[in-house]
């Protein structure tokens, strides 16, 4: 388990390239709306690459700048980072895209909303503390690709307003859960 905690981020650049290659190979067999839902996954792998590999340092940044810890590896740990990122991005995003293939793109809308909302938190951290790992991909890919996906879905009437509200609520719930965990569970551990 320790090996996985230390090394899961190293898979993200490979997974980003591999998943884009697979998506491009099957692009002609996929509706554009579904392609845009699937595209959220490699975009987010690139986001994680910036956070944890190049330049990396998200744990230390979050612990010291956001939570106010004097320890770069506490209270947010490698173990916690693994159990946050893998279920949401490595499992939740692809499973939602698979379900969107079976039941319609509305099932995957939350991934685009989450990509934008989480990216907005990086932009907010930038205005408060300057550059943070994840900011560049947030600004250059997460927000534009997520925004384009949502624009495409809306402009082509591919999902109901109710589906968008549910997708937004799920994304806000996931991001809100992460923030609650950070500020109500992790931050009190500092004192």
Describe the structure.
- The chain is mostly helical and about 190 residues long.
- The protein has one domain (about 1-190).
- The protein is built from eight helices and no strands.
- The chain has helices at about 1-5, 10-25, 30-50, 60-65, 80-105, 110-130, 135-155, 160-190.
- Helix 3 packs antiparallel against helix 5 (about 80-105).
- The model has no long low-confidence stretch (mean pLDDT about 95).
Find the count of extended strands (DSSP E, 2+ residues): 0
Q: What is the percent of helical residues?
A: over 70%
Radius of gyration: 17 Å
What does the main sheet amount to? none
How many helices in DSSP terms? 8
- Percent range for β-strand residues: under 5%
Segments where pLDDT lies below 50 for 5+ residues?
none
Distance between the termini: 28 Å
Q: Please, what is the oligomeric state?
A: single chain
Q: What is the mean predicted local confidence, pLDDT? A: 97
Shape: globular
Give the class from helix and strand content and strand pairing: mainly alpha
How many domains, in number, for the residues? 1
Listing every helix as H and every strand as E from the N terminus to the C terminus, the arrangement reads HHHHHHHH
């Amino acid at each position: 388990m320790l090996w996985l905690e230390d090394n899961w981020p190293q898979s993200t650049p490979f997974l980003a390239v591999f998943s884009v290659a697979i998506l491009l190979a099957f692009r002609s067999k996929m509706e554009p709306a579904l392609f845009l839902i699937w595209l959220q996954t490699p975009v987010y792998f690139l986001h994680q690459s910036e956070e944890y590999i190049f330049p990396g340092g998200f744990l230390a940044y979050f612990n010291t700048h956001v939570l106010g810890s004097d320890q770069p590896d506490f209270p947010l740990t490698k173990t916690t980072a693994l159990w946050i990122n893998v279920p949401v991005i490595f499992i939740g995003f692809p499973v939602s895209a698979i379900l969107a293939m079976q039941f319609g793109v509305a099932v995957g809308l939350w991934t685009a909303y989450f990509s934008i909302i989480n990216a907005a938190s990086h932009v907010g951290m930038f205005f408060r503390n300057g550059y943070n790992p994840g900011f560049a991909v947030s600004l250059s890919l997460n927000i534009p690709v997520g925004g384009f996906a949502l624009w495409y879905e809306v402009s082509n009437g591919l999902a109901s307003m109710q589906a968008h509200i549910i997708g937004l609520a799920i994304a806000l719930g996931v991001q809100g859960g992460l923030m609650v965990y950070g500020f109500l569970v992790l931050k009190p551990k500092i004192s």
